[in-house]
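User: My instructor asked us to take a sequence, write out its structure as C-alpha cells, and then describe one feature of it. I'm not sure where to start. Here is the sequence I was given:
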Amino acid sequence: MNKIAFLFTLLATVLIGLLPAAPAQAAGAARTFVSAAGSDANNCTNVATPCRHFATAYAVTAANGEIYVLDPANYGSLTITGPVSIEGHGWASIAPPSSGNAITINANPGDKINIIGVVLDGTALTSTTGIAFNSGGILNVRDSVIRNFAFDGIDFKPTSSIVSQLLVTNTVVSDNGGQGIYIAPSGPGTTNGVLSHVELENNLGNGLIADTATQTINVTVSDSVSANNNGSGIFSNWTGGPGTNVMVRNSTLANNANSGFAAQGTGGTVRVTRSTITGNTTGWAVFTSGVVLSYADNNIDGNGTVNTEPPSPLTYK
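Assistant: Let's start with the prediction itself. The C-alpha cells for your sequence are:
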C-alpha cells in the first residue's frame, strides 16, 4: 500500500469512529407483537415469537414502529420515550403499578404517540393515573376505555415551547378519582386539542378541565358527553398567559354536580353551539371575569339554576 492510500484509509477509519451512534429505538423492528401466550424471552418480532408485555416489545420496536396485540390479556404498564403506535384491537388491557401510571409518556418534541383499542383500568389502586403525558408532540387516543384510576384519566401536561396536540376519539373516560381529562401545559408553547365522540362520566372532579398560566390552549369538543361528574362537565380555567379557549359543539352536558360548563379568569372562554345542557346543579357559570358565549341554538333546561342562554349571543360567520 502506498503512502497516500494508507493515509486515506486511516482518515476514513477515524471519521467512521467519530460518527454518532444511532438511537437505540431506531435499530429495532418496525412491527412487534405481544400475546397472552408470549414470553419476554422471545424476540417479539414475529407472530410466532411474541412477547408477553408491552414494555419488552417497546424496547425492541423502532421509532415510529407498531406494537400489535394478538389476543386478550393485561400487558403491563409502559413508559414511552419515542414515537410509537400501540394497536390494541379492543382487547388489550393495561393496569398500573401501585402509585404509578398505566402509561407514562416522556417523548421528544414532535414525537407522535398513538394508543388505539386499549382498556386502561386503575383497578382501584391508590395514587394512580391512566395516561401521564409529560412531553412529546402528539398524543392520539382512539377506541379506548380509561377508568377506575385514583387520580386523573388523562393528564396532558407537557412543558413545551412549540405546539402540542391531544386527540381523543371514540373513547370512554369514567369513574376516576380526579379529573376525567386534565389539560394543563406549561412553557411558552401552544396546546391544541380535539375530543370527538368522547364520554366523560362519573369522575370525581370535572369531566374536562383546560387550565394554563402560560400557554394558549385551544380545545374543540364535538359529539361528546360529559355527565354525572362531581365537578363541572367542561371547565375552562385561566390564571395567566394568552388564553384558554374551549369550543363545545353537538354535545351533552348532563347531571353534573356543579355546572354543565364554566369559565374562570379573564382569559378563560367557553363557546357553545347546538348542545344540550340539562340536569346540572347550574346550567353554566362564570367566575372571576370568565367568558361564556353561545350561538343561541342550545337546549339549556332542567338545571337547578341558570336555564338561560348566555348573554351577547354569537352569530355564525
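For the description part of your assignment, you could build on this observation: The chain has a mean pLDDT of 92. Try explaining in your own words what that tells you about the chain.
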